[in-house]
Amino acid sequence: MATPRNRRPESGPADLTGMLLRNVPPHNLDAEQAVLGGVLIKPSILDKLGIELRRVDFYDPSHQMIWDAMVGLWRENKPVDLITLATALTAAGQLEKAGGPAYLGQLAGCILSAANTLHHAGIMRAMSKRRSMAVMGRRIIEIAYDPERDPAEFVSIAQTASDAVLKDRLDTHGETPDEFLDPYTAYLEKLEESGGGGVSTPFWKLNGLIRSFMPGEMIVVGARPSHGKTALALTFAEHAIGLGHPTGIFSLEMGRHQLLNRMFSSGAGVAAQRFRDGKFSDEDWSRIYDHCQRMKQMPLRIYDKPARKPSDIRAAYAYELV
Asked: Which of 96, 94, 116, 93 shows the shortest CA–CA distance to 36?
């Protein structure tokens, strides 16, 4: 019987240019085979992959069937090996469609080390993301050429696609409970392990009210001018840095020197007035230089370019602050 690999002239390292010319969606079948083979060699890796990879991340339909069977066994706390996998596929009436026993055995020999499985999974996710981008791109082109569609709709969809790419959440399908419940329970387990997670503030009474700053939240600090909003925000930032969290400070009005004046006043213990009149004592300079050395080791970035857009902040978060 011809195995699925024998039927695939496009198998091998991804040739994106060739795929584009043949109008074939981006994919890497070798990476998919390596991931499936890695699971057969080291099933425990499903504890990580089972909540990170989804069926749609596999391009080949037979690989989707095999992955579903593997995840099904994993969720039922059953062993994942060639025998149990073949049994599960047979029960679902998919063994032959997935390539048969010979192909499952071939998958187990597709990878020499299970340690590379996570790397190959990353390649798969990148290809899946490219496929979603291509679908989104076709939708945008269709809207651009449709005289009945409002140009504002085009702009809205284009912005949504751009934001999704920056957050690595570009997708073209909704998720079923089977897909979203496992990541959710894993999130709750991490929340329990971390004691609530998030980034605390240096004020214990405030922590009692809001607990901490949680991922994905936007906290607005409001007050009249010159009432300490910037000072409070810098205090939050310095506390987060002290806890080891990568921190970015975006300033639309105040330049970096003004921000640093405030940070050095509190961090180095130098009177704020010194940063106005420039009358530093030898002790002040010693404290400033000591704080410079400490700050060089801090996970901090300052962005003081004016007129920044939300997408700029998202891009900085995606590429520099994580």
From this structure: 116
Q: Give per-residue pLDDT as tens, 271-313.
A: 989 898 899 999 999 999 999 999 898 888 888 877 777 766 7
Q: Please report the pLDDT score of residue 6 as a whole number.
A: 43
The pLDDT tens digits for 188-212 are 877 777 666 678 888 888 887 877 8
Q: Which amino acid is at 103?
A: Y
3-state secondary structure of 248: strand
β-strands 300-303, 247-250 pairing: parallel
- Rounded CA separation 54/32 (Å): 12
| pLDDT of amino acid 10 | 43
Q: Is 254 helix (H, G, I), strand (E, B) or coil?
A: coil
Report which residue type is found at 93: G
> pLDDT tens digits, residue range 13-33?
566 676 666 678 889 999 999
Burial of residue 141 (CB within 10 Å: 0-12, 13-18, 19+) is: exposed
Rounded to 5 degrees, what are φ and ψ at 199?
-115, 120
In a 13 Å sphere around the CA of 166, the CA atoms on its Cβ side amount to 18
Structure tokens at 268: 């180095």
Q: Report which of 197, 300, 288 is spatially closest to residue 247, judged by C-alpha positions.
A: 300
pTM above 0.85, yes or no: no
Q: Helix crossing, 117-145 with 151-166: angle to 10°?
A: 170
Say which amino acid occupies 217: E
Written as one string, the DSSP assignment of 194-233 is: TTT-SB--S-HHHHHHH-SBPTT--------TTSSHHHHH
Q: Smallest Cα–Cα separation from 39: which of 55, 50, 30?
A: 50
Question: Over the range 284-314, which residues count as b (16 or more CB within 10 Å of their CB) and which as e?
Answer: beebbeebeeeeeeeebeeebeeeeeeeeee
Amino acid at 129: K
Say how far apart CA 166 and CA 119 lie, in whole Å: 20
